[in-house]
Design brief:
Elements: H1 2-19, H2 21-41, H3 54-82, H4 84-104, H5 108-136, H6 142-146, H7 148-166, H8 169-187, H9 194-199, H10 203-214, H11 221-236, H12 244-247, H13 249-266, H14 270-275, H15 277-284, H16 290-311, H17 317-343, H18 354-368, H19 373-381, H20 384-438, H21 448-456, H22 461-481
Helix pairs in contact: 1-5, 2-3, 2-5, 2-7, 2-8, 3-4, 3-5, 3-20, 4-5, 4-8, 5-20, 7-16, 13-19, 13-20, 13-21, 15-16, 16-18, 17-18, 17-20, 21-22
């Protein structure tokens, strides 16, 4: 039994990591922004037209968020009609084109176009990856598998930080192309999700896909039958629509929960910190060089995401998110005071360690909490037939917030000072803490059907069976670890 469970876990992790190569590529281009914008601003710029302006910087850092908005519903529709993997192939090609445009261009106009395409790819990544992972995971592995996304993003970002600090601009660009090719090859090897295949009445293929994911010797019949029952229940009702997100009591509660989490996630200043990391360190006058400081921050991001995959299995979702908000606020307040004292003209050389320490704590804690848990929770509070609809709205909403934070960080800092910007972000962390305490339900180790029933205020016969299966799986997992 233990060996079968372990083999099933390995298959699920392999498939999840393969799908999350897209997250790795997304992280690379996020890191590229932080490392390459200072080069483009310098007199030694690789572009023909000379150094770019700060207005160019703000648009290059944020336009991808704007272009991702219309792409999300499109990818959601393609995913529902043709499957998860076709979306993966499209997104991989978009990343490949983006990398080639950066590697082959020498004008800022082409960079703008590449960032627009990158925004479409980003939107597809956050439609494909959470859907794919949530539909191949068992209830007991859904949380840890969900945290892989953040880990892969941070590995990609660190990869970009390291090569950006040590190699020339166009060499970095070509090294951003290679992972897209690898992903397109790997995607061919992993199966389509059993859930999508069942919805398409491709039952034999669904059985083969589930057997591949759970292992050749695994007894997949109980899980397959439970999934079929849920699918039949969904088929007996009308087809899902965007209207259901606001007319169904349970779906509406889940909908405003994920929008609130997205607001909390973005208005803590994430896009500003990730897009302008090197520029922030340049302005701070820290004891460490900007490149070195940025790599340290990248390492702390990776450590945080790795720890999140462990802690997610042992701590409640609410506990981790509340912990995240508190320490994000503390690090932002500390960073704000550093820039405030510097703004007053005081000598801050004796506390030159504050910027890198504060940002390291910020990214560490963010990755322990808000980097992946909102997506994990999203997959735990929506039924499969509404999840794609919810993601197709939540994605653009998150992107719009990220655009506003990234585009206007420089403007906001000019108006209220860099210190004021960080303090404003800290206020949103405090407000987020209140929401988590008062409104957010706990979903750890809770079967999907049970959560759906709680949100809608009902109880179904499938909920009790799901609770029993999950309890047995969790107990088996704990016994095998002793």
């Amino acid at each position: 039994m233990e060996q079968a469970t372990r083999r099933s876990d390995i298959r699920q992790y392999v498939a999840a990591i393969a799908a999350n190569l897209l997250s790795f590529i997304f992280g690379i281009f996020m890191g590229w922004t932080a490392m390459m914008l200072p080069d483009l601003l310098s007199s030694d710029t690789p572009l023909q037209g000379g150094p770019i302006t700060k207005e160019d910087v703000s648009w290059l850092a944020s336009i991808m968020c704007l272009s991702s908005i219309p792409a999300a519903p499109l990818f959601s529709c393609i995913s529902e009609k043709f499957g998860r993997k076709p979306v993966g192939y499209m997104v991989g090609l978009f990343y490949l084109v983006t990398g080639l445009m950066v590697a082959l261009s020498d004008t800022v106009e082409i960079l703008y176009v590449s960032r627009v395409i990158l925004g479409c790819a980003t939107s597809g990544t956050f439609v494909f990856t959470p859907l794919y992972v949530s539909e191949i995971a068992e209830d007991r592995t859904r949380g840890p598998l969900g945290t892989i996304l953040a880990t892969m993003v941070n590995i990609g970002t660190l990869y970009a930080f390291v090569i950006g600090a040590t190699l020339r601009y166009y060499t970095v660009a070509w090294l951003c192309v290679l992972p897209s090719i690898i992903f397109l090859l790997v995607l061919f090897w992993i199966p389509e999700t059993p859930g999508h295949l069942l919805r398409q009445n491709r039952h034999q293929e669904a059985k083969q896909a589930l057997q591949w994911l759970r292992g050749k010797r695994a007894d997949i019949i109980p899980e397959l039958e439970t999934t079929k029952n849920i699918m039949k229940k969904m088929e007996s009702s009308k087809a899902a629509s965007f209207k259901d997100l606001v007319t169904s009591k349970g779906a509406f509660r889940a909908f405003y929960i994920i929008l609130a989490l997205a607001t909390n996630q973005q208005l803590c200043g994430l896009t500003a910190v990730t897009s302008y990391t090197v520029l922030i360190f340049q302005e701070s006058g820290s004891n460490l060089s900007p490149d070195t400081s940025t790599i340290v921050v990248g390492l702390m991001s990776l450590v945080g995401s790795v720890l999140a995959s462990i802690l997610c299995s042992h701590f409640r979702r609410k506990t981790l998110l509340l912990f995240g908000n508190v320490f994000l606020a503390v690090s932002l307040v500390a960073l704000g005071f550093y820039f405030y004292f510097k703004h007053l003209g005081q000598d801050v050389s004796s506390i030159g360690w504050v910027p890198v320490t504060s940002l390291s704590v910020y990214v560490l804690v963010f990755n322990l909490s808000f980097s992946s848990l909102p997506l994990v929770i999203t997959s735990e509070i929506f039924s499969p037939h509404l999840l794609g609809k919810a993601l197709s709205i939540n994605g653009p909403y998150t992107a719009l917030l990220a655009f506003l934070v990234g585009k206007f960080f420089i403007n906001l800092s000019s108006a209220v000072g860099t210190h004021g910007s960080f303090w404003i972000y800290a206020v949103f962390c405090v407000l987020g803490s209140i929401f988590i305490i008062v409104v957010l339900p706990e979903t750890k180790d809770c079967p999907l059907q049970t959560t759906l029933d709680k949100l809608s205020g009902t109880k179904s016969k499938f909920s009790a069976e799901a609770e029993r299966l999950t309890y047995e799986a969790v107990r088996s997992s704990k016994n095998s670890s002793v």
